[in-house]
Amino acid sequence: STMSLSEAEVQSARGAWEKIYGDAEDNGTAVLVRMFTEHPDTKSYFTHFKGMDSAEEMKQSDQIRGHGKKVFSAINDMVQHLDNSEAFLGIVTPLGKKHANQLKIDPKNFRIICDIILQLMEEKFGGDCKASFEKVTNEICTHLNNIYKEEGW
């Protein structure tokens, strides 16, 4: 297995994720809005978000809400398969290839988004919640970076 998480770590990571995934659309939106606000260059990938400058405006956007939900759904699929590296890679690989080849997203943005998710977890549910999910974000980012390398980035 390529996964470096113990069974206990998988369980506590799932518990932590469930808390934030309970409100996937709002929390997913909050993560994207924070990313676009704190790292405005990330907006350039989303042509329909370009003109939006205020966080309030972004929060109301159906497209941002939809994408926030999509990001959280993808992570949720990964979290469900942390104990099955084949299934996990089956989700991460096509996602990585699409972002590398079609969307041409700089892979550093995955780390940014993961760090914002961890921040939000800490703010809402405390440091333990964040700590138990940190290893998962490292797994996700490591695998995505590997896929990018394979794709010639």
Automatic annotation (TrEMBL):
It catalyses: H2O2 + AH2 = A + 2 H2O; 2 superoxide + 2 H(+) = H2O2 + O2; Fe(II)-heme b-[protein] + nitric oxide + O2 = Fe(III)-heme b-[protein] + nitrate; Fe(III)-heme b-[protein] + nitric oxide + H2O = Fe(II)-heme b-[protein] + nitrite + 2 H(+). It comes from the Eukaryota. Belongs to the globin family. PANTHER family: CYTOGLOBIN, GLOBIN FAMILY PROFILE DOMAIN-CONTAINING PROTEIN. Its EC number is 1.15.1.1. It is an enzyme of class 1 (oxidoreductase). It holds the Pfam family Globin. It comes from Peucedramus taeniatus (Olive warbler). The keyword Ribonucleoprotein does not apply. GO terms for molecular function: heme binding; iron ion binding; oxygen binding; oxygen carrier activity; superoxide dismutase activity. This is superoxide dismutase. Keywords: Heme, Iron, Metal-binding, Oxygen transport, Transport.
